[in-house]
Amino acid sequence: MDSQKEALQRIITTLANKNEELHNFIDTLSHSLAGVQVNSSQVVSDLEEEFDTLFSILDEMKESMTNTIKQEQARKSHELQNQLTQSTNALESAEELLEFANNALHMKDEDEFAKAAKQIKDRVTMAPAFRLTMKPKATDSMTHLMVDFSQERQLLQNLIFLPVPRAPEIEVQDCLVVDNTVTVVWRMPVEDNKIDHYILEYRKTNHEGLPRVKDERCWEVVDNIKTTEHTLTGLKFDSRYMNFRARACNKAAAGDYSDPVTLETKAFNFSFESASSHLNLKVEDGSVEWDPQGGKGLESKIKGKENKGSAHLANLKNMSRSGTPSPKRASTARSPAVRGGRDRFTGESYTVLGDTSMDCGQHYWEVKALKDCKSYSIGVACRNLGKFDQLGKTNTSWCIHINNWLQTSFAAKHNNKAKSLDVAVPEWIGVYCDLDGGQLSFYNAESKQLLHTFKTKFSQPVVPAFMVWCGGLSLSTGLQVPSAVRSFQKTENGIGGSNSSLNSMAQ
């Protein structure tokens, strides 16, 4: 019976996965079908616009060349008309002079003949007919303005759609996900020397397998990539996977997208859990700050709930005025239930926990103290950390503690034991927790210098834990375990020079 149920459960799981795959494929087909309609209308519109532009250019060229012919016609006509008018006038003058000369031949009077002959001679010398150029200033030929569009016609007849680059192929085996960077590598199926650049698109997702059309996040674009690989840096891995696709572009058009690929980008993500924080800690996204006024809002509630609560109020006010009160002055009576009942009133108990527990695997996060922070601790603790417990003073909490009050001290703490650390306090501290290997290590996040390592066996889940007084902490999560840390853990087995005195067993 049980084996049949298990077999049926496997069948149900397989069918559910197949149904989800089919839904995704149907969405893809529907999206592609709609895209065909939209994109076809767009390319038709673009084609009409290109032809209209071409027609407009041809009309402009026709008008310009026609005007050139008309201008040449007007010029030649003007030249020839002037010559024709001058020649006509010269002919009339020559005919008149010819007639006068013929008449002079018949004159009987010698004096009149001599006078007429002199006039004729003078007039011939000045006659327009002898001053005209007998060559036309323009010809009737217009062959220099003829055109031959045979090559252009051939070009027009050879018009084709743009040679669009083929879709690249992403080489999944060559892609690399490390140190919160992703290197994507692709190749062209055939060599194409016309490619000008590539476009890479990516988006985060929590769905394994082929990218979904209807995903909660949009594609982000990296343009103008000149090589067949690209590295995205400074990523926060706050999703389990990332989808990638690429396309090639020439000077004219962009080609089709490559088949999308999915790469795993799993990392440890958590936030400060406000329900676990002390009243005097103000928790916001990615940061926590000590607020000395944070508990004053409960004074009226405490007065109304407990007539004998004057000691609590005095202690609460004293805490707000003086910062970290002595544990000896702290009240052990239970305050009203606020933020999950984890109110604390003891020195160094201004704690807040992470909202995500760890029970296996390797995890990494980084913490930065805000400027002028007087005292803070960074580490891990079991969920059962008591409301008056201080980090590093129980057998279920491990931390490094930095105290900048009066004089600077830097120590590793566990089970009420402290080990002074003779290293500089870095700006960003990296925390590496290996629950499988039983290690908790602290690093200079920038240089990856090992600060301290606890060797222990975690017998129950732990959560990130923090203490802050007179200042604040900034948190960076969604980080992979840095490759430098992994390498160090492999070569050194996680044992540093300052570890041995605090090695322990978790209870």
Q: How much of the residues is beta strand, in percent?
A: 15-25%
Element-level helix/strand string: HHHEEEEEEEEEEHHEEEEEEEEEEEH
Shape summary: elongated
Radius of gyration: 47 Å
Supply the helix-strand structural class. alpha+beta
Average pLDDT metric: 83
SS summary, helix count? 6
Number-wise, the strands total 21
List the uncertain runs: 296-346, 494-507
* Strand numbers in spatial order across the main sheet: 9-10-21-12-17-18-19
Largest sheet: 7 strands, antiparallel
Describe the SSE topology.
Elements: H1 2-104, H2 110-126, H3 150-157, E1 169-170, E2 176-178, E3 181-187, E4 197-205, E5 220-225, E6 229-232, E7 241-249, E8 261-264, E9 281-284, E10 287-290, H4 299-305, H5 310-322, E11 351-353, E12 362-369, E13 375-382, E14 397-403, E15 409-414, E16 417-420, E17 428-434, E18 439-444, E19 450-455, E20 462-469, E21 472-476, H6 483-492
Antiparallel strand pairs: 1-3, 2-3, 3-6, 4-5, 4-7, 7-8, 9-10, 10-21, 11-20, 12-17, 12-21, 13-14, 13-20, 14-15, 15-16, 17-18, 18-19
Helix pairs in contact: 1-2
